[in-house]
Design brief:
The protein has 14 helices and 14 strands.
Amino acid sequence: MKIRLSGRVFLSWFIIAGLAGLFASPAAAADTIKLGVAGSHSGDLASYGLPTKRAAELVAKEFNAKGGVLGKKVEILSEDDVCKPELATNTATKLVSRGAHVVLGHICSGATKTALGIYKDAGIVTMSSSATNPELTQSGKYPNFFRTIASDDAQAKLDADFAMDVLKVKKIAILHDKGDYGKGLAEFARGFIEASKKAQVVVFEGITPGAVDYSAVVNKIKQSGAEAVIYGGYHPEASSIVIQMRKKKMGTLFISDDGVKDDTFIKVAGKAAEGVYASGPKDTTKNPLAIAAIAANKSTYNTDPGAFFLNGYAAAQALLNAIQKAKSTKYEDIAKALRTYPVDTPLGKIKFDKRGDAIGVGFSMYQVRNGVYVEVPAAAPATAKKKK
């Protein structure tokens, strides 16, 4: 059956329908700028995710004190993925359905990779403070993705060069946790070592995350004559491996990544952590903006900033600054602004290249000395001597 409408009735219906559509649109109806924050807010890797969450809250507070963004208050939408890829899809879907304009997250590379397609389809810019897997920016699959940390190929090169050129080791065992992050870093490290011909990879093996006993792989390292281990993965497994190595009186040097460069590793590994090396974001704590951010964190949360706090702070600043500069919450406008306008952050003045990587950020090498991580000049010999 057809229904005929007079011109006046049709016009009235058209106007009402248009207004209904306008108010049904989350972007048009939103009275706040919604900053989604996704990451490991609970579980074993919460020490990586909570600092970025707190950083986002502090940056939102800072912007809101100055009138917000585009005249609107910044609202934090927080979702926990426990750093598990199988949960990240649901986390991303929740943030999209809640109307996030931009997303700060995820924390772990595997979870980030799983979630990115959902944000891409929804037209949402996403920025991580810690997801270092090179493919995330270098593959071209995720034009909506940005990060405030360098990628694992740079980190793996630092680890490999440090082992060969500074520690002067000739036999290296490489372990990884089979994940996107850990395995990727390990494979890059192996490639750099083999190409250099300065050292030999005597063990290359994946371990099972969450296992209680790593004695089999520890024995393999011992029997191989490896002078150093390069490990790609996170602190729970690294602490177990190091503890078991030291119980066997092995003086093998242990070198890892920013997944281990965390105070939780030191707390869990205890005395076995002494002398361990780990690469991590360059130390910018003397930057005045970093000093202020760390002080704000201490005042608000009465805790030390934690891993990736400054990277998270910079990411939140960059995202909100891009919306302000673009005068828009549209994906294309925000992405263009991120690549066009530099922003002053605790990491320094940054903007992003065409792939989404932050220009000017990088990694440094650290060593546990007297229970704390201390930055070690990459070209200088470390103070702790290798045990025979």
